[in-house]
Every structure is written in structure tokens, then in C-alpha cells.
Amino acid sequence: MLRHRQRRERISVISGLSVSPHRRRCGLYFLLSPKNIQHPEVCAFLRDLLHHLRGPVIGIWDNGTIHGGDAIRALLARYPRLHLYRFPSYAPELNPDEGVWRLAKRALANGRPDSQHELFRHLRSHLSRLRRAPLLLRACVRASALPLF
Predict the structure, then answer these.
(1) 106: Cβ–Cβ under 8 A, 6 or more apart, which residues?
(2) Is the confidence at residue 149, as pLDDT, over 60?
(3) Domains identified in the chain, total number
(4) For residue 101, which of 58, 62, 63, 44 has the smallest C-alpha distance?
(5) Parent domain of 60
(6) Band of the pLDDT at 146, cuts 50, 70, 90?
(7) CA 137, 57, 67 angle in degrees (round to 5)?
(8) 53 assigned to some structural domain
(9) What CATH number corresponds to the domain at position 24?
(10) How far is the C-alpha of 141 from the C-alpha of 145, rounded, in Å?
(11) 148 in a domain, yes or no?
């Protein structure tokens, strides 16, 4: 007999890779949430990026519904140094962040956390380690079809 507990717990994540224009240094930024990420969390993530990055910030992201709307337009009006562009429809090969998630899924694949909190800790730990691995971040950017380096 196989017993299974049905749980609806989840962790939602928004993340992004940065590449500095002069030194070509890569950075990883992320926000973990125990609920679905919506416009307020996206705006908080973008404000956090602006806090950490100097000068103009150019963001390229997918066509997700949370990447548009009045809240995002208001944020863009408030922060003129932030410029957001969309990838073409369904173009994961262009998105360097896909490489981050391939690495994360590989690292967490055989785990079986007993709680949402434990999964949260494992995911935060892995992303924090990845944040300190510039060669891996650079490999994610190079693996994409973006002509950055």
C-alpha cells in the first residue's frame, strides 16, 4: 500500500541575472515567496534590483502576465532609469535565467523535503551558493542565445 499526503504548499520564485556593462560581472538576484508571485512582489523585486544596481537598468523578461499591468507601468514612470523589454513569445533559449533553474532543479532533484520550510531553506541555500559562483552564472548567460559576451 502506498500512502501519499496531498499537499498544496508551494514556493514561488522570481529571479534575474545581471551583467555589469564594464566589467561584465554577473550577479544573481531572487525573491522567494510562499504564495503565488503577483504584481506587488514583482514591483518589490524590481525596486530591490534598483537598490543594488547603479546606473540604467535594462531588464529583459518573458511574456508572463505578472510582467505587465498598471503596477509595472507606475513603477516604470517612477524610476526612469529602469527599462523593461520582453523576449519574443516562448523563447526560453534566449533567457539566461533558464540556466539558473536548470542548475537549481539538478541540485534539488533527489531531495524530499518534509515541509515547505525545509524546501525554502534548501532552495535559498542553493541560490545563495550559486550567487557566489560567477563562473556558473557566466555559463548561464553564455548558454543562452543572447550576444552578451
Answers:
(1) none
(2) no
(3) 1
(4) 62
(5) 12-143
(6) confident
(7) 85
(8) yes
(9) 3.30.420.10
(10) 8
(11) no
- Single-letter amino acid code for the residue at 137: L
- At 71 the pLDDT is 93
Per-residue three-class SS string for the chain = CCCCCCCCCCCEEEEEEEECCCCCCEEEEEEEECCCCCHHHHHHHHHHHHHHCCCCEEEEECCCHHHCCHHHHHHHHHCCCEEEEECCCCCHHHCCHHHHHHHHHHHHCCCCCCCHHHHHHHHHHHHHHHHCCHHHHHHHHHHCCCCCC
Q: Is the pLDDT of residue 5 over 70?
A: no
pLDDT in tens, 34-87: 999 999 999 999 999 999 999 999 999 888 888 888 999 999 999 999 999 998
* pTM of the predicted structure, to 2 decimals: 0.86
